[in-house]
Every structure is written in C-alpha cells, then in structure tokens.
Amino acid sequence: MSTRLLTVDAFTATPFAGNPAAVCLLEGPRDPVWMQAVAAEMNLSETAFLVPRDDGFDLRWFTPAVEVELCGHATLASAHALWEERLLDHSATARFHTASGLLTARRDGDWVELDFPAKPAHPAEPPPGLADALGADPVAVGRSQFDLVVELPSEAGVRSLSPDIRSLGALPARGVIVTARSETAPFDFVSRFFAPAVGVDEDPVTGSAHCVLAPYWGERLGRADLVGFQASPRGGVVRVRWRDERVKLGGQAVTVSRGHLVV
Questions:
Q1: 43's torsion region: left (phi>0), alpha (psi -120 to 50) or beta?
Q2: From 27, 46, 84, 183, the catalytic residue
Q3: Is pTM beyond 0.85 here?
C-alpha cells in the first residue's frame, strides 16, 4: 500500500521560499507513532496528515519531534494539496477538524485565506535568561497560550538576531516569537519564530505565531487588517485580519514535489 505525499511551500508563491510542509493524504486513520516516524523522516518543521470524513478532513500536525495543537503553514499546504489533487473542487471551502477545533480555508484569487482562533498575548515578566538567550533587550514581553512574544526596538534588530538556540529551548514555552514594527513598506510588522523545544530551531514562516501577532499589532497600530513579513532566511508574507476571537490568515502556496510513501 502506498500513500500520496506532497511537499508544498506555504506563505510564498516562489518555490524554495516560504515554509515547506509535507502533506500525507491518508485513506484512513493511522497510528500516531507511525505518523511521528514519518514526520521525523520528512525532517521538515511540520508534516500534516489528512483523513477524509463526511464533513471535511481530520487534520493532525507533527514536527520531527512532537505533535502540535495548531499549525498555520501546514494547514495552508493541506488545503492547497486538496485543491491541486482534485480532492476538493477549487470553489469549495476546505474544512479541517483539529485539536484546535474546526479550521477552514478558502481560495481568494491567487491567495488562500485561513480562519483560525486568535491567540492574544498578555503582558508577562520575562523568564530568567530570556535576554541572554536572545542576545537582545526586549521592549515588551508577553505570553500567549503556547508561546512567548518578544518585541524588539527595531526591524533591524529582529533581522540580525542570532540567538542561543539551546538556551531558548530551555525556556517555559513552545516557542519564542520575536517581532518589531516594520520600517519597510508594504509590511506593518516583522517577526521570527524559534521553537527548539518542539524540534524546530527556527521556523521559516509560522501561521500560528500570526494568531498572536494579529491582535498584538492590531492593538498597537489601531488597525485590524495588517501585513506581516517573517524575516527568516527563506522569508514569507502573511496577511492578517483580526476579528475578535478569530484571525484570518492570508497566504500563497506552491507544490514543489509529488510522490508516494511505500511503507
């Protein structure tokens, strides 16, 4: 028995940019141990596993090390794969049943819009060792459901950051979102995301982090519709629309490989 497997670069329209995700199109449920082993074999920041059901698809996400509760780029990649493989009509909304509830994706021209839960950050005391691990002094620190969010004084500071990854992995959070107001049009803010605690030293473009950044910068800039740039070496653009308890994430995607798992 073989399993269809695609690699999709998410939050980009350019191959070999954005954030690559593997998408496994399963015919039925598989053991989580097997899924974790596949994710480790793929060695990407996330591998998505899709199982069809009457009203959509069950969707789970695994890093090379652990299963996670929310992932934006692999959800975008999953929707793109379903439309590309003709498992969904291009006009149909993709419905995903996940550990974070029902998530949806719809096509909007050349873009895809995801409907995700907002994950606002609340002001927090910096955990011991944070500034030393980052090699930078924060302007503000907050904590969301999963992550720490750290604001730096400048975009240049975010882009040039070279943190101590091992020390970041010891902090009490899934990951660390580092952000600043953008000085480069058309972007409103920039960010980077480090999650060594779950096996991802630096994630290229992180949809779930933008569920935090949308309300964070929406409150500070007084606007609900914003454009973010994640300034990793690969880089990626995320449009955000914050609506109370939900965030709409807009991005593009491109398929870079198709194949089959034969085990």
A1: left
A2: 46
A3: yes
